[in-house]
Amino acid sequence: MGHLALHYAGPEDGPLAARLLSLFGLIETQALPLPDGNFYRFVVNPDHFARGDGIVYLSALPAPQVRLIEAIHTALSIGTGHEHEAVAAYRAMLASDPEASFHFGFLVSTLEELEALVIALRDLAAGDPDYRDRIRISMNRARPGDAEADARLDASPVFGDCSRFAYGQGGVQVFVETDLIRAGQLGEAMHFEFDYVFPDRASHILSVVEL
Questions:
Q1: How far apart are alpha carbons 76 and 136 in whole angstroms?
Q2: Side-chain-side CA neighbours of residue 147 (13 Å)
């Protein structure tokens, strides 16, 4: 990957969005103050600090894009009693399948790291007023059938009570939706996906899709 450009809505959301990306595991290498909000540069790990790949940029939405999003919301009567039926259908799709539309996926090295991230995000959303109601988490555990993976997930503080299943065995998924970063057809929120695949599996959720 060369780079990915992400956006936040306004200047006040910039530091909050940057903190969230750091919690996700990205490494901030630059925060450039600009009149409309900071411009941030992140890399996926320290080895990419001075390279031209593995970069994530974060900046404020450009004014023309803000106006376009506002026009879309007006045309579809979003937030009113006359909201276009397509909006509800789109949101229902994302609620049942967060990876159905645009999203940014991370591969996490260990299940313990992923569990710790979920717990940290839950604590942040519950305990920090700046993040309350701005982070939503859902997850899929691996399809049953792998005895070792099933036993580990049953004992997990995060996946033990998870009743949703991925499109295959051998891996788990965590989805984080946040309006601190804006994307998608309605410009309302961004979806992030965090995956872990059990080692030494020839077939897992990222290698094959099962119906």
A1: 24
A2: 0
* Residues 6+ away with beta carbon under 8 Å from 62: 7
Percent helix, strand, coil in the chain, to 5, is 35, 25, 40
Average pLDDT value for the chain:
95
Instruction: Supply the pTM of this predicted model.
Output: 0.94
Residue 17 makes CB contacts below 8 A (sequence gap 6+) with 6, 8, 58, 178, 180, 181
Tell me the C-alpha distance between 171 and 165, whole Å.
Answer: 10
Tell me the per-residue pLDDT of 125-181, one tens digit each, with 9 for 90 and over: 999 999 999 999 999 999 999 999 999 999 999 999 999 999 888 999 999 999 999
The stretches of the chain forming alpha helices (DSSP H) are: 14-23, 63-75, 85-96, 111-127, 147-154
